[in-house]
Amino acid sequence: MTLPQQVSPAPGSEPAAPAVHDQPAPRGTLICDADAIFDSVAVRAQIDAAASATTDPAEMRAEAVRLLRSAQEAGRDAIARAFAEQPFAARPLTRSYTYLTDGLVTAALHLATTHLHPRPNPTLAEHIAVIAVGGYGRGEMAPFSDVDLLFLTPYKITAWAESVIESMLYTLWDIKLKVGHASRTIRDCLRLGQEDFTIRTAMLEHRFLAGHAALAEEFAERLKSDLFSNSARDFIEAKLSEREARHRKQGERYVVEPNVKEGKGGLRDLQSLFWIAKYIHGVQDAAELVPLGVFRPDEFDRFVQAEDFLWAVRSHMHLATGRATEQLTFDLQVEVAERMGYRDRAGRRGVEIFMQRYFREATAVGDLTRIFLTKLEATHLKSEPLLERIFRRRPRVRAGYQVINNRLAIADPKAFLADKVNLLRLFEEGLRTGMLIHPDAMRLVTANLDLIDDDMRADKEAQRIFLDLLLKHGNPERALRRMNELGLLAAFIPEFEPIVAMMQFNMYHSYTVDEHIIQCIAQLAKLERSELTEALPVASNILDHGINRRVIYVALMLHDIAKGRPEDHSILGAKMARQIAPRLGLNKSETETVAWLVRYHLLMSDTAQKRDIADPRTVRDFAKAVKTVKRLDLLTVLTVCDIRGVGPTTWNNWKAALLRALYRQTRKALETGMEDLTRENRGAEAKKALRAALPDWPKQVLKLETGRHYPPYWQGLHLTAHVDFAEMLRELEERGDPAEIIIRLYPDEDRDATRACFVMGDHPGIFARIAGALALVGANVVDARSYTTKDGYVTDAFWIQDTDGHPFEAARLPRLSQMIRKTLKGEVVTRDALKSRDKIRKREKAFNVPTHITFDNDGSEIYTIIEVDTRDRPGLLYDLARAMASANVYIANAVIATYGEQVVDSFYVKDMFGLKYHSKSKQKSLETKLRQAIDEGAERAET
């Protein structure tokens, strides 16, 4: 922690007036020459010369502001240039900004007391001391940190002191410093510090800048004797409560756009540690915690490393944005990584390597926090109530362990380390007893990870313990997360080490790869505890009927083990699984099943989200790949846990409905045969259901309705849509207007979408026009089906969501329908209207999403499937559909899968003659048109 005695001095030491003088502090290392940052003597001489040239105080202050602003800009430029050359020099940087700010503040005081409000012989009441507090007082300043000042007076503030303070503040504000200030007496400070822990914390880190030194010394002594001497317990509890509230607000340490200052594992956590240490032990430097036994030397080194890195990151963020920015957003991650010299290598982007380092430092902050806080518990925190200790029932710990402050500790470290398998047993005992592990025990584990060798990994007891951690206690994520943070997981499974704290640089994944795996396992454990039965009925039913738990847990553990390498992570991961699974105690058959699950862990989600599961070929091909119900069950559970483990908002009813439908159809096909998947069977059943749903319709009208549609219509839509379209077609015919458009918007809550049905006379390009109309009203299309009738009508069904991924509110539907109708009738020119809306947000521009276009003639019996994998943006579907319409492509349906900033649009198409696109030249020509549409739209979105 950069501390007062390490801070650069307040520049200059000449008296501003009798009994008012600057207090130099010992100079720490600056990032460049001190005079290049701020030449105090020269600046004050310039101010004195300017003051002597006029008697007008306004002119005097205006010229001083100009001089200070020029000196400030030169100093900031010098610091920024030096930091660009030394991008990790965080401590010299923070001292340099403190040094510059000290110079500006003391120069403003010099101007006020010497020229604007001179007082050669001040009375006792007119003494003033200028004191830096908070982060500025600590001497830690990022480029755009606030400047917190305390103006201390011995008694109630005098008119002279008020004038000096006002002139100082206006001068500092005019040079664009963000100054927070307070004018108080010592008595005020003590009273307010008793009432408010935030004020008390700010004063804990006070540093005298200039003015009346004796007053500042008295202030320091009174704080020590009257405020800080006998309230350590209350202060600690207040700081810990603040920490918990901050973490709840900011989220977990592993969120992919962390807050560097306030987030879990961020700078504020380190600062909280130091505040408590300073309050209790009176230390002035974190290094003093080593001889006190709070940190070991290697832990202190880790403290310094984490702090330096986080300060460097924060400072680069400030310089990149030109303001006090604390959230490390995606676009900033790229820029900061470049500033700090991270480059692409081995199939990974430099930004991903940078963020992996960031998350590892954040983890280290968490470890240090845990060690420090546990040291406090025994002596400073309130013990739990006596009755709670008496009546709480805890399992007795096994031999070799003891309980210290309600935590599982090791009785004899030497005996413990004599059996290296004990490194795993510790976590088994923690889960068995439900107790947290004592930080001293965790320290022992971390210091002895080298004991975990190939012999230990091959030990049958070690394998049993590891599998029991997954299978036996009901909450495996607790042990896995702690083992991961301590490095034990990567030591026991060395292949895990590269993915520890590895960020996947996209908007889809909310966690690092290792945390994603732990989240997946946590989802499976919740399923087994019956906590998700209502939300996940199919997966819950599978578990109720029994699957191989060893296989599913190990498969989840390994499914992303090969992320971050140039090879396909599914293929390489399967190879790695064949090596790892036997080391975890799985037999040959189990190992092969795990390897298959890892190899095909994306198969079910890709099939459900990127293909039309109403097409018999889709289900038939998926069933052939899965082969057995046993594999289907395992893959379904793994897929559900994988998607839910991506992030808190990734799973929704739309995905759930797709996966359930695919599971049920595939299971039926595997159990009763593939013939159940034929179009004819499905069509006959759908027509029968429609007749039953419309019992009051005349037979002749029903016969017309069931006879006007082609087979794909009957298999591609649910009965409710068939009923809607039947009623809409009948209404259209009764109106007798060929230009009429019938629209129905129906909230489909079961699928988290709104179903938009359109009926009108058929004509070319209608799919593109509907897509454009929906884009204009801010609707995201997740599925679309277009069917022409034998008698010249088009029936189109689109499933749409709002920008938050939810169905549109019922109250919005009438206006939505009106706006869509106007667009379809040509009253709004879609392409022109989209220009002002088709923008990519700044934070999304950092992602590289290459475009891939493939043609698949085997995935459907009657259509060519064109899959377009590219960057998502408003209006994309419209652009693609319009390009296809211009090439006379008939779009039967489109399936849209969105993964953050990436989208995969799959179009089921025919050419104008109703044939597939087998010709390579036709494919190439169409691909060129699609790429051109993507590029033009992207260019529009950038401007």
What this model shows, in words?
The protein contains 40 helices and 16 strands. With 943 residues, it is of the alpha+beta class. It folds into 5 domains: 4-229, Beta Polymerase, domain 2 (2-Layer Sandwich), CATH 3.30.460.10; 234-377, Four Helix Bundle (Hemerythrin (Met), subunit A) (Up-down Bundle), CATH 1.20.120; 508-677; 687-837, ACT domain (Alpha-Beta Plaits, 2-Layer Sandwich); 843-943, Alpha-Beta Plaits (2-Layer Sandwich), CATH 3.30.70. An 8-stranded antiparallel beta sheet has the order 9-10-12-11-15-16-14-13, sandwiched between helices. A hairpin with a 2-residue loop joins strand 15 (890-899) and strand 16. Helix 7 packs parallel to helix 9 (213-227). The chain is globular and about 110 Å long. The two termini are 44 Å apart. The model is unreliable at 1-27 and 384-391 (pLDDT under 50).
Summarize the structure.
By secondary structure, the chain is of the alpha+beta class.
